[in-house]
Please model this.
Amino acid sequence: MSPPAVVIDRSLTRRIAALALPALVVLAAEPLYVLVDTAVVGHLGSVPLAAVAVGGTVMSLAVWFGTLMAYGTTGRAARRFGAGDRTAAVEEGVQASWLALTTGVVLVLLAQVFAGPLTRALASDPEAAHAAAGWLRIAVLGIPGLLLAAAGNGWMRGVQDTRRPLYFVLGANVLSAVLCPVLVYAADWGLTGSAIANVAAQSITGGLFLWAIIAERAPLRPVPSVIGNQLVLGRDLLIRGAAFQACWLSATAVAARFGVAALGAHQIALQLWFFAALALDAVAIAAQSLVGAALGAGDEPAAREVARRVTLVGGIAGVCFAVLAAAGAGIIPGLFTADRAVHDQAAIVWPWFVAMLPFAGVVYALDGVMIGAGDVGYLRTMTLVGALGGFLPLIWLSYALSWGLPGIWAGLAMFTLVRLVALLLRWRGTRWAVVGATR
Model:
């Protein structure tokens, strides 16, 4: 079988968009469902709402694992696909699915044992902690499906199929969004109904991806050596992700020490930053798929052209977000709160937020390039350098020297700048562009 051609022409940008736009919908489906779930539960009272907030925080760790699994699988499957071996690309998905299923079962068992202590540690109110533990013990039953969906997204992106994941994820989440108010209100199951609706969405989605991989008729037996290679890749992505989490938690902790208004403004800007990152991640996913396929096909010039074009698209997307954010500077904070003190603090943060968005677009695109190339060890190291050498020192200096929110966001700017310089240097070199079906 001849390798699939990686065409570099004027249609490349359209190809990037064709992969990125369905991926964006898939990325947004889960957060949008969480908003629906939160709105439904919020009408039950403050204790159920607090319970979902606490339980959802714990569940977000499983979502994080799933994201790492999807990213790692995409790059490996894309290389196999680019080398002309779709069966091997699907087999990467089979092994990732075994890893997902095993990890999911382990997390379910751990949650049954530790749900109580975890929720008590996160919630100061005993009633909310008890309700959160009950919700969590049910909701975690959906984790195997959630992780199976992540593995499925990974190999399907690798073979450049982003339409079926769109239908699977969107369909299941729409069904669950309808089911949630029915179970919570009509069936009068309350918080339990919310948890069951979560499990339904995740289990149905996981089942659809499992059906898809079985339909490929690839060998289904586990191969420990391949799973081991995926774990090594996942380890580097996990360390990188942990550095991000340490930065965000530290930034929030320091912002809280400057008062309620500062914390509120920081939270608004940070959540908008996360939203922009979600959209820009769709471009990164296209980069993972196309770069991996080009390198798998042995076509380094094609991989470099994809990298150049996707970086340009990411930069343009970042500029568009910056223009929108700048235009909404006087409006957007008011959508979140009427507190004038928060608005005043947001006005301090906003120039930092707007100025960083174009650079963030380039950084996220190049992140996708390097993940697609399998160069995650370099990503891990440079993220740690940026976190330990830029972000975290500036954040805690901001606290010690009372610099306020400008110091915190200067730390985020330094973190972004370090990663940008490191990624551009790597991109201009040759060490990331290793051709072949495997790296």
Remarks:
- The radius of gyration is 22 Å.
- The longest helix spans residues 46-82.
